[in-house]
Fold:
Amino acid sequence: MTAPFAALLFDIDGTLLRAGGAGRRAFERALEEHAGPVDGRVAAMKFDGMTDRLIVREALALVGRAWDEATCQAILDRYVEHLPGEIASPGYRVLPGVVPLLEALVARRTAFGLCTGNVLEGARVKLRHGDLERFFDWGPTGLHGFADDGEARERVVMAAVERIRRALGPALAPDRVLIIGDTPRDISAGHAVGCAVLGVATGNFTRAALQAAGADAVFETLEDPAAGALLLPAP
Structure:
């Protein structure tokens, strides 16, 4: 993996922050409003690395309800409405090294954005609670990919890369974009589009698991000096 990269794309949950289960609680409340009592049938679902839209599809299948676009959007809209209340519960934390890293990227004028399975408004709620929203461009020039761009994680990566190309030049190769994430899904989706992927073991997967999934580099946290050297190479 060769630095410097033209742009960096960060996952949110398990990479920048831990929301203490707020997303799952908000989602289950929204699902019950549309599908009735779920009786613990989605409790065993592993959300790690999934897009919010895929979570809706798989959860509806578990409770025996058909998926359609209108139902999916209605559940996601209610999820976003429930999320601020749930995220105020104990358990939320910004992960080690995140704030100093983002501050340094802003100071260096590095191109960076988000590549996350969250829908856009859910991402903003989660970041806002930890005062991280301020680091990202939420206008039309934002270099992001969200679940709004597609159900498959690869579609989210593709959307983010296309926005980077519009900003930095259409000839930009995907391998000049580095994705930073904490799950094997981040790794497989990034590689499917041709991006390099840095794994961080701050989510639910160990360093060994992320290495086995094929990450181009893995660090325990973004506080690791070697991670800083990779993401903030000397001028």
Remarks:
- The chain has two domains: 7-19+92-231, 22-87.
- DSSP finds nine helices and seven strands in the chain.
